[in-house]
Request: fold
Amino acid sequence: MKARTRAAAILLTPFFLLFTAVMVVPIGYAVWLSLFTEKQSGLGFGGTETVFTGLDNYTAALGDRAFREGFGVLLGYCLFYIPLLLAGALGLALLLDSALARARRFFQLALFLPHAVPGIIAALIWVYLYTPQLSPVVTAMEAGGIGFDFFSPEGALPSVVNIALWEWLGYNMVIFYAALQAIDRSVLEAATVDGAGAWRIAFAIKIPLVKASLAMVGLFTVIGSLQLFTEPLILNKGTGSAVTSTWTPNMYAYTAAFDRNDYGLAAAASVLLALTAALLSFAVTRFTGRRKAGTAREASTAHTARKAGTARKEQTA
Reply:
């Protein structure tokens, strides 16, 4: 037993060291930094000094309308982006998993390739495609009588959602496709023999059996959505877009740190965002856990009922 414990400790030590170095220490430093601010003495000629201000930076961040509006943008982004991503990725995976699909490997690679493009490059590509007088997409839309300004206040959010979908749809499709491939083929064959069509098999068998993958992708997508930064930052730079420098909480923290040199405020905003992500992750985990427990109880009840019915039939016979 001692040898097993020692072996486990040796194997886990590198993980905990790395976790402490890249997670615990930076978070602890951010919390510590958020409790201080730099102030200039006198008329500003005496240099700056670091002063302990307690929770003042948190109060300032929460009291700033721009910071609060950033969470409103994130809410709209999540409500728009997450359902489209999950439905699109799952739909593509179901199409590839169907018996009618051809050239699966080609389409897997073609759909996954956009994820291989770095986020900043993807954003630059789409900025070009959004820009009037430059973009063939905008020109084609105008020729068809469709006028849409991707940089307007109404178009900024759909523009960012479109870039994110282009980047992540194929990646999550691969996860769902792998989960679908892991389903026991005998279950699908039995459903086909019983007369179930493709739609019924997809919605009554395949999707329920990949709920764990749906929950995992949903959780990671929520966490990733709260970190929205690269795409709106590129749209903000010299495009005349409605995306401001404080459009999301991450951009607010970036602007506070590197434009205003207010590292305490930036750290406080980052800690508040991290707490929001932790709370949402907990909520999603609890919700999916309850759904799994309910599904398991329903399956157990149905199995018991089937056994009881079989036993009654045997007794009657």
Notes: DSSP finds 13 helices and two strands in the chain. Residues 298-314 have pLDDT under 50 and may be disordered. The beta strands are 36-40, 48-52.
